[in-house]
Amino acid sequence: MSTRIQANLPHMSSVMVKIAELLLEHPTLPLELSITELAERAGTSAATVTRFCRQIGFSGYVQFRVGVASDSGRGDAHESWRADIGRAFAPEDTPGEVLSTLLHAHVRSLETTARQMDLAAVTAIAGAIATAPHLDIYGIGGSAGMALEMQGRLYRIGINAHCWSEVHSGLTSAAILGDGAVAIGISNTGRTEETIQMLSQAKSSGAFTISLSNNARSPLATVADVNVITAAPEQFLQPDDLSAKHSQLFVLDLLYLLVAQHNSAETAAKLAASAMAVSEHRRPARRDARTTTRKGGGR
Q1: How far apart are CA 294 and CA 299, in angstroms?
Q2: Would the pTM of this model clear 0.85, i.e. be above it?
Q3: Ordered structural domains, the chain, with CATH
Q4: By CB neighbour count within 10 A (0-12 exposed, 13-18 middle, 19+ buried), where does 138 fall?
Q5: What does pLDDT average to over the chain?
Q6: Less CB within 10 Å around the terminal CB: N or C of the chain?
């Protein structure tokens, strides 16, 4: 692997050279670090690590990691498990042990997020959303699902909210935002390039910008006017574990409720109207036959 990296050095950009130098000094790092952790160690982005992998002949980081494992003689199933699942879980753990570890990770993430939250800032964000003429929410990959869920809930209570998970469409929307508009960028690491670009464009257009990530010093946080920080997974869990997303959903749920409170009467009216509109598409709750028999005096 070192020979392959050195052969491609003359064709690498300066940011890729940082990755190359790090790996030449520590060739087995990819077996221990996720793509995000390796990018952070090299002082670059996950997208740059992916481009680096392609530069030296691999289709992505996973394939590169397999190549490193093969070269180092550590390409066994146990090492692959540690690299991709994390060191908090072991293949031989009982279901009970997996459950306990997972529960602890999720609870700890939620509690840490709540403790470090700037509630005054979150309340101010909710007020801005409640009165905004237009709200953009940006998210890529796993964050796109959360952006879509938040958009749907806010739209139902009268917020002119739109979510964007494709960068061209998101940039188009961000470019036509104006004063009073609000834009939220969701990225666990705060290093997703497309989300950074969309939020940056929204800020340039005059929108009030908010980042939701686990790193107050991330590129996304640097772009935003206000940052909401969620707890990152523990040391031996992968940074893209669902415990991290759970914390972000917790914050989004809080924002939704605070926005709903801003004009509770109007919120209640809109929720009732939307519930009525879809009522015919929901099957009625099934009554318990035993309860019906007892109430009717049957056997």
Answers
A1: 7
A2: no
A3: 2-84 (1.10.10.10), 105-280 (3.40.50.10490)
A4: buried
A5: 86
A6: C
